[in-house]
């Protein structure tokens, strides 16, 4: 949830933690932002607001419609675009199956629904020539699909060679005519994330350029005709943090526009807040900038310049509510369903491995494949949204082998994680220990802590920037004890996602034979 200060300014980022590639849309009095989910499910999280300041997670758009098992890290669901026309929501997105160079196996799809909550139609396949699809509804009723064009023949640098456009026929539910190259890259290169807006007689093409890292930027071009030729903004880039490493918001780019009922314009865009100036552990987040059209018809920040601002004016007439920057999430597993904040990897949470019914009042997680599995990793996690936080859980677990483990985990991807877990060691019995994988280098910490049988174990982790200290206690104890030394977690950054904190169970002896029962999970964060 965003924070509005007493001065009536919206504090960025408006969506903290892993919330990249935002597409913003207004339908009547409701604003929506949909973000990428990559390998995490449910996919394509949607946030809703009435004032651009206070945002709530309202729904997720992809559940059983996708099969992500086996997809490599940083692949799967990319850069969604949400539009609304003739009383119908349109969603286009990319399912990335592989990014192994020089090729990129990407498939673009479309779904529709009468409301944001659905019911959503089955995905319709569109094309595979590139990623970041976007649908433009022209005034004459025709619909056009845009996407970044991937050219494997480019031998040096990025292979995103520009933007391609092709007409979409809704009655036939497929593309018609021939694709046409609409826009080449500027000097920034790596052109992607296209959106077209019609304004004052011009078609405005907004793209992301410069890559999603420190060189990221928003490029704006315009044309009197939809199919071009497009003139680039003479002050390009319109928004960027490049070459200014001291800015609090880095990697600014991947923008989309929305107009308020009062005629004000805003741009939602991607950003990061690197810890210690270099470690984007929280991942790529979503920020909001107020913009306007200048006398020459170009898009500009109302703050001036081209750098992202930490504070932007709230829309005129907004009701200002001051909120403290404290994030609390707690699940005591006493309901019929998991809370919607939870996420899983490449597969949905199903009763077969993640049950609230087998033992009422507990979440039972049956052991899945290894912590590095791309198929059946039985992990339940939430986004890290704060630079400082504490997470706690308690579990009952009776492992019979070192191949069985369950506990509390900090997880970026299968190559980067820190896991405090209960297991069984020959000659020692039930033990508590830790493993770490950083940049695909696995380390099993040698220290083992014997723990009692048949006693619930409480685990906690305190994170402060790049430091993480795990703790433990038995349920019959009051005080917490440190588990191992403080760990440096600066490696939990990079790629396209952000760090998650969660609970998991693994059984590499006999799949789903063992299980752990969790009685609660709590996350409390402060900036």
Please tell me what the overall shape is. globular
Structural class based on helices, strands and sheet pairing = mainly beta
For the largest beta-sheet, the strand count, sense and barrel status come to: 8 strands, antiparallel
Work out the strand percent. Answer: over 45%
Low-confidence segments, given as residue ranges, are 1-6
User: How many beta-strand elements?
Assistant: 41
Structure overview:
The structure is a single chain. With about 525 residues, the protein is mainly beta. The protein has two domains: about 5-315, Glycosyl hydrolase domain, family 43 (Tachylectin-2, Chain A), CATH 2.115.10; about 325-525, Jelly Rolls (Sandwich), CATH 2.60.120.200. The protein has no helices and 41 strands. Strands 26, 28, 29, 31, 37, 38, 39 and 41 form an eight-stranded antiparallel beta sheet that branches. Strands 30, 32, 33, 34, 35, 36 and 40 form a seven-stranded antiparallel beta sheet that branches. Strands 16, 17, 18, 19 and 20 form a five-stranded antiparallel beta sheet that branches. Strand 33 (about 415-425) and strand 34 form a beta hairpin. The relative contact order is 0.13. The model is unreliable at about 1-5 (pLDDT under 50).
Quick synopsis:
The chain is mostly beta strands and 527 residues long. It has two domains: 3-313, Glycosyl hydrolase domain, family 43 (Tachylectin-2, Chain A, 5 Propeller), CATH 2.115.10; 326-526, Sandwich (Jelly Rolls).
Task: Give the arrangement of secondary structure elements.
Elements: E1 3-4, E2 9-11, E3 23-27, E4 30-34, E5 40-41, E6 43-49, E7 56-62, E8 76-85, E9 88-98, E10 105-113, E11 124-127, E12 134-137, E13 143-150, E14 160-169, E15 174-184, E16 192-199, E17 202-209, E18 217-223, E19 231-232, E20 239-240, E21 250-259, E22 265-272, E23 285-293, E24 299-301, E25 311-313, E26 326-331, E27 344-345, E28 354-355, E29 363-366, E30 379-383, E31 388-397, E32 404-413, E33 416-425, E34 429-438, E35 441-444, E36 449-450, E37 457-464, E38 467-474, E39 481-488, E40 500-507, E41 515-526
């Amino acid at each position: 949830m965003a924070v509005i200060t007493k001065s009536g300014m919206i504090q960025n980022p408006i969506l903290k933690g892993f919330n990249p590639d935002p597409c913003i849309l207004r339908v009547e009095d409701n604003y929506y932002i949909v973000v990428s989910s990559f390998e995490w499910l449910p996919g394509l999280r949607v946030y809703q607001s009435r004032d651009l300041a206070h945002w709530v997670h309202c729904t997720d758009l992809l559940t059983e419609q996708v099969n992500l098992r086996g997809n490599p890290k940083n692949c799967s669901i990319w850069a969604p675009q949400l539009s609304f026309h003739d009383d119908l929501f349109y969603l286009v997105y990319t399912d990335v199956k592989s990014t192994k160079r020089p090729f990129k196996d990407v498939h673009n799809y479309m779904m529709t629904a009468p409301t944001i909550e659905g019911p959503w139609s089955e995905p319709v396949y569109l094309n595979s020539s590139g990623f970041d699809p976007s649908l433009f509804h022209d005034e004459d009723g025709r619909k056009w699909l845009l996407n970044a064009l991937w050219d494997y023949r480019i031998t040096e640098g990025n292979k995103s060679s520009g933007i391609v456009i092709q007409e979409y026929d809704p009655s036939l539910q497929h593309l018609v005519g021939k694709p046409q190259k609409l826009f080449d890259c500027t000097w920034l290169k790596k052109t992607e994330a296209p959106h077209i807006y019609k304004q004052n007689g011009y078609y405005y093409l907004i793209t992301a350029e410069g890559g999603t890292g420190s060189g990221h930027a928003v490029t704006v071009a315009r044309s009197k005709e939809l199919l071009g030729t497009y003139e680039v903004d003479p002050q390009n880039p319109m928004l960027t943090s490049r070459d200014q490493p001291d800015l609090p918001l880095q990697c600014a780019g991947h923008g989309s526009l929305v107009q308020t009922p009062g005629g004000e314009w805003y741009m939602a865009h991607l950003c990061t807040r690197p810890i210690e100036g270099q470690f984007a552990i929280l991942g790529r987040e979503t920020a909001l900038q107020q913009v306007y059209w200048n006398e020459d018809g170009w898009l500009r920040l109302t703050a001036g310049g081209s750098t992202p601002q930490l504070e932007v004016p709230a829309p005129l007439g907004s009701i200002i509510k001051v909120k403290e920057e404290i994030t609390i999430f707690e699940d005591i597993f006493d309901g019929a369903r998991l809370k919607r904040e939870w996420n899983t990897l490449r597969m949905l949470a199903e009763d077969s491995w993640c049950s609230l019914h087998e033992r009422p009042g507990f979440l039972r997680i049956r052991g899945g494949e290894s912590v590095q599995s791309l198929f059946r990793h039985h992990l339940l996690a939430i986004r890290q949204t704060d630079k400082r936080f504490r997470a706690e859980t308690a579990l009952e677990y009776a492992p019979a082998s070192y191949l069985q483990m369950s506990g509390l985990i900090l997880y970026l991807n299968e190559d980067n994680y820190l896991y405090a877990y209960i297991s069984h060691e020959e000659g020692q019995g039930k033990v508590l220990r830790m493993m770490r994988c950083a940049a695909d280098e696995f380390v099993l910490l040698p220290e083992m802590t014997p723990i009692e049988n048949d006693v619930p174990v409480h685990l906690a982790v305190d994170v402060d920037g790049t430091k993480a200290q795990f703790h433990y206690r038995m349920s019959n104890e009051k005080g917490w004890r440190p588990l191992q030394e403080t760990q440096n977690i600066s490696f939990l950054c990079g790629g396209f996602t952000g760090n998650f904190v969660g609970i998991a169970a693994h059984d590499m002896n006999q799949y789903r034979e063992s299980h752990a029962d969790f009685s609660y999970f709590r996350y409390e964060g402060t900036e």
